[in-house]
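Entry:
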Amino acid sequence: MELLYGTTNPGKLDAMSRTHAHQGVIALSSVREYASVEDILQAAADKGEYGMTPSDLIEQIPYAIKELVNNEEESESCAG
């Protein structure tokens, strides 16, 4: 991504703005094609990367909590 910036006079900003409520700043960007979650996961799979969906993450919560509790218990027994 390339970020270009510059300064200009307020009249040019007024001409670029539909509402003239630009506060001295206007950003322009190109249109990007929409990508669905399935598209993103497929792109990751094509690269051999593993992607997790939100439902995958939710399924992992009980295991993550159990791991945190186990780690806390281990650190308490080592410190004790």
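The chain has a mean pLDDT of 81.
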